[in-house]
Amino acid sequence: MSADVGLKPPAPEPAYLGDGLYADFDGYQIELYASNGVRKTNQVYLDSSTLQAFLNYVDQIRKA
Rounded to the nearest 5°, which phi and psi values hold at 9? Predict the structure, then answer.
């Protein structure tokens, strides 16, 4: 991940974000996934440019 998003690799374990959503970081990309309590489902991976685009989107909707 580039320094512009302020992440340091890697995350020691996945973080529970709420509503069945988890985040994990492998030192390069963030994996977002849902879990049904047994296995991961619906994984999405965000590299540094995709994460920055998402953060920009969040900033835009906060200002709206």
Answer: -80, 165
| CA torsion through residues 56, 44, 8, 28, sign | negative
Number of domains making up the chain: 1
The DSSP element (H or E) to which 48 belongs, if any, is helix 48-63
Contacts of 19 (CB under 8 A, 6+ apart): none
Q: In what order do the strands lie in the sheet with 15-18?
A: 15-18, 21-25, 30-35, 40-46
Whether pLDDT at 55 is above 80: yes
Count how many Cα atoms sit within 13 Å of the Cα of residue 57 in the half-sphere of its side chain: 6
Per-residue pLDDT tens for 42-52?
Answer: 999 999 999 99
The tokens 């296995």 sit on which residue?
A: 39
Task: Give the range of the structural domain holding residue 38, as residue numbers without chain letter.
Answer: 3-63
